Amino acid sequence: MSDFFSSGWHWFIAVLSVGGLAFCIWLLFASAKTTDMSSDGTTGHVWDDDLREMNNPLPRWWLGLFVITVVFSAIYLFLYPGLGQVEGSLKWSSDGQYQDEMAKAQAKTAPLYQRLAAMDAPALAADAEAMGIGQRLFLNNCAQCHGSDAKGSKGFPNLSDNDWLWGGDFAAIKHSITEGRVGQMPPMAAAVGSAEDQRNLAHYVLSLSGSAHDNLRAQLGKEKFAACAACHGAKGEGNTALGAPNLSDKVWLHGWGEPAILAMIQNGKHNEMPAQKNALPPEQIHVLAAYVWSLSNR
C-alpha cells in the first residue's frame, strides 16, 4: 500500500487534471472554427443521394456553458486541492472541515458534559437527559456488536444482565470502554488428556451449572477440571480479574452443550473488545458507561 501513496501519484493526478483542462480549452477553440470543405458549405459527405453533412459552428448557448465549466474548473483548482498534493489557496481539506465542525460541536456541548462529568452513575441513571445522550452514544458505537437492546448475541456479551466477564461496577465498565478488553483462553486439550478425558471434562463443566449432562462422565471429569481452576476457580465461578467466565451459571457466551465446550477445550478462544478512548472523549465515555451500568441496575 505504501507505493499507492508515493509522490508519483501526486504527479499523475496533477498532470491528468491540468492535461484534461488544457484539452477542454483546445477543444473549445477547435470547435468554434468552421472550415468549408465544399463550395456549398458542406463537408462533401453525402448519404442516400440527398443527405449532406453540414459544417456549422456549435450553438452559442452550448459554447457559453462550455466556457463557464472550463473557467469554473480553473478557479476550483486554484482555490481547492485538486492537483495531487497541492493544497489550494484556501488551504481547505475535508479533514480540516471535520475537525472544525467537531470543535464547534464540542464547544457547544461542553457546559452540558461539564455538568454530567460531576455526577456519579446512580445520579446519571436518574437523569433523563444523560440517559438520552448515553443511549445515542450506545447505538452509534456499541450496538453493532451488542445489539440495539444491549442483549448481545453469540460471542458478544449481554450487557443488560448481571453476568460480567470483567466486572459490572461503574469503574470496571468505564475501564472496559476506555481501554478495551482482550480475553484469551488457550487450547487445553494437551493439558486435559485424551479425547475421552475431554468429553468427561465437558460433562463436568455442564454439571456445574445444573445443565443436562452424563453424571458418570461428570464424576470422571472432575479431576481434570484442575487444569481449568487456575482461571475459572475451584468451583467454576469465574474470575473478573482475568475475564474468565462463570461456568456455574446458565450464561453461555460461545454456545452451550458438549460440542461447544469441547471446541473451547480443543481450540481455545480469543476475544477482543476494541478500546474507545481514541473514538470518544472522556466526558462521553463517562455518560456512556453510566448508561451501560443502568441497563443491569434498574
UniProtKB/TrEMBL annotation:
Coiled coil: none
PROSITE patterns: CYTC (PS51007)
Ranges where the Cytochrome c domain occurs: 129-209, 216-296
Domain of life the protein comes from: Bacteria
Any one GO BP annotation for this protein: proton transmembrane transport
Keywords: Cell inner membrane, Cell membrane, Electron transport, Heme, Hydrogen ion transport, Ion transport, Iron, Membrane, Metal-binding, Oxidoreductase, Repeat, Respiratory chain, Transmembrane, Transmembrane helix, Transport
Transmembrane stretches, start-end: 9-29, 61-83
Entry's Gene Ontology molecular function annotations: electron transfer activity; heme binding; metal ion binding; oxidoreductase activity
Pathway: Energy metabolism; oxidative phosphorylation
Localization, UniProt: Cell inner membrane
Keyword Cell wall biogenesis/degradation: no
Binding-site positions, heme c 1: 142, 145-146, 273
Gene Ontology cellular component list: plasma membrane
Pfam families reported for this sequence: Cytochrome_CBB3 (PF13442), FixP_N (PF14715)
Cofactor: heme c
Record-listed heme c 2 binding positions: 185, 228, 231-232
Function as written in the Swiss-Prot or TrEMBL entry: C-type cytochrome. Part of the cbb3-type cytochrome c oxidase complex.
Family: Belongs to the CcoP / FixP family.
The protein's name: Cbb3-type cytochrome c oxidase subunit
Species of the source: Inhella gelatinilytica
Name of the gene this protein is made from: ccoP
